[in-house]
Amino acid sequence: MKDMEIWSPCEDITEKVKSKNYGILVLNVPIAFNCSHHFLTNLWDQAKVRMTVDGGTQRWLDWLKMNNYNLDEVRMPELFSGDMDSTPEATLDFFKHTCTQVIYTPNQDETDFVKALRELHKYCEAKCIQIDTIYALADTSGRLDQIIANINALYKCKQIIGSCKLFLLAKNSLTWLLDAGKHSISIPQPLRDREKWCALLPIGEPCQVSTTGLKWNLDKQKLKFGNLVSTSNTYSGSEIVTVETDHPVVWSMSIDNLL
Ligand SMILES: Cc1ncc(C[n+]2csc(CCOP(=O)(O)OP(=O)(O)O)c2C)c(N)n1
Ligand SMILES: O=c1ccn([C@@H]2O[C@H](COP(=O)(O)O)[C@@H](O)[C@H]2O)c(=O)[nH]1
């Protein structure tokens, strides 16, 4: 187990320069970021590998058109996968004339998201592309089953993408899994100053957690559904939040006004 896992994803996505070793994946969710559209196109353009997942492909094309991008001038995804139940025939046809690899993943025992992670990993291995991070555009509104399935993907992804980190990036939140052990999470000043929300969610299993840097810290307390779950928490002002947990726990934080 590592001594302390260091996280600074807010800085990474806003500065977009710290690590360019990331992949981006567009799920079938509304692309409704409150930010300037340059943020998204930049995140897309600078990725080492781009992927759209089933209905996410149409969402991405529609978003580009809505923002007046010329499709001939935009980088197409390297990969587009799914069981294709949400993709119009015309969109599949469109991709036949591009360099995008279209991968049909019909298995109905896993979500298109999880299957996409597997395909992305295979692609990177085959092309010797090194990525250490994947941002999945995964808005947290709408279907509760899919929201939970997307969180389940955080739990499953280690078996699929190894040590590569997976973040669910929504228009106003960033969510990822903290493994058992110690973590240091860097909190940008605007989030601390505005006392934006953060949460520790023991979704997979109960866990014993200690924290520093939060308004409502935990001291070897058990987080468990049906008992204590740390929601609507916020920051005490410290630049760093530390979390020590004996089992994996989901960390979610507001990124309102950051992008
Ligand atoms: C016990 C069990 N419950 C439910 C399912 C059904 N199931 C799980 S994942 C999956 C595929 C979901 O596909 P995805 O494209 O991710 O979502 P969709 O929008 O089509 O629901 C299906 C059908 C199953 N195979 N096993
Ligand atoms: O309401 C939704 C629908 C879908 N997702 C995510 O997108 C992929 C692909 O979905 P399709 O419906 O097959 O196009 C799915 O696996 C989910 O991860 C979602 O988050 N919310």
Automatic annotation (TrEMBL):
Swiss-Prot/TrEMBL catalytic activity: thiamine + UTP = thiamine diphosphate + UMP + H(+)
Record key words, sorted: ATP-binding, Kinase, Nucleotide-binding, Transferase
Domain Thiamin pyrophosphokinase thiamin-binding: 181-249
InterPro entries assigned: Thi_PPkinase (IPR006282), Thiamin_PyroPKinase_B1-bd (IPR007373), TPK_B1-bd_sf (IPR036371), TPK_catalytic (IPR007371), TPK_catalytic_sf (IPR036759)
Pfam family, one: TPK_catalytic
Pathway named in the protein's UniProt entry: Cofactor biosynthesis; thiamine diphosphate biosynthesis; thiamine diphosphate from thiamine: step 1/1
CDD domains the record matches: TPK
One cellular-component annotation, GO: cytosol
GO terms (BP aspect): thiamine diphosphate biosynthetic process; thiamine metabolic process
Single GO MF descriptor: ATP binding
Function, in words: Catalyzes the phosphorylation of thiamine to thiamine pyrophosphate (TPP) utilizing UTP and therefore links the biosynthesis of TPP to pyrimidines metabolism. By producing thiamine pyrophosphate, a cofactor of the mitochondrial pyruvate dehydrogenase indirectly regulates pyruvate oxidation and lipogenesis. Although it can also catalyze thiamine phosphorylation using ATP and CTP in vitro, it does so with significantly lower efficiency and without physiological relevance evidence.
Family that this chain belongs to: Belongs to the thiamine pyrophosphokinase family.
Subunit structure: Homodimer.
Protein name according to UniProt: Thiamine pyrophosphokinase 1
